[in-house]
Amino acid sequence: MRDIAQNHLMAMLAYISMEEPVSFTAGDIRTERVRALSALRSIEKEEVGSMVVRGQYSRGMRSGKKIPGYREERNVDPNSNTETYVAAKLFIDNDRWKGMPFYLRTGKRLKSSVVQIDIQFANPQSLIFREYKFPREYHANTLSINIQPKEGITFRFLAKAPGLLMELKPVNMDFLYKRSFKRDIVDSYDKLLIDSIRGDQTLFATGPGFKSTWTLATKIMKGWEALPAPQFPNYSPFSWGPKEADELLQRDGRHWLLH
Prior knowledge:
The chain has helices spanning 4-17, 26-38, 48-51, 177-181, 188-198, 207-226, 243-250, and strands at 52-55, 60-62, 65-67, 85-91, 101-107, 115-120, 142-148, 152-160, 168-176. The chain is an alpha+beta fold. Residues 1-256 form the Glucose-6-phosphate dehydrogenase C-terminal domain.
């Protein structure tokens, strides 16, 4: 919570939810980013249990090799309740996003090392193809921004399968940076180092933004303190995390796209 969730996840949330800046300059981008984070809805102590999931990985096996649980790692307290996984349901209370949930998750020892933002478009109000065969979970189009390991963008939608029958199948339209530009992409830390030398603060967090994210993170952690001790460990290594994270979305009739 203190590291990845409070820092990196919130940065991506800000970029996705911010309004268009007046200009493509560090100051104007920062202004809109802070404005989005300032509109984050607070999570009260009694809401933490239903809106935030925490987890810790257990021991396991991979390719015939024993994998230690977090509490068995070197220099870790064998009774540690430090979370290695967090999932949350957040809201941004402004005119554009009011009532729209944002689901975030991050963790260690998950099934795949991937950084991805999935934007699911609203379901159509009328399904003109409802009498035809198609997967029920693909009502809405999805735009996936792939940050790691393969930088690019994927648009997922339904298309008619070849043939005489009216049958719809989910397909992907892919854009990959390396395939399109055929050059290596600058490492993210190299980019930040170069920007700092140039004095470009576009990608750097600022005090007001930190204040908003830390206020939210602090409330979540205080809510955890008021709850019974977690039953750790609660997810297997190289899985997608604890079952409670799936239930977090299932209560809203949704599911994680990577599962």
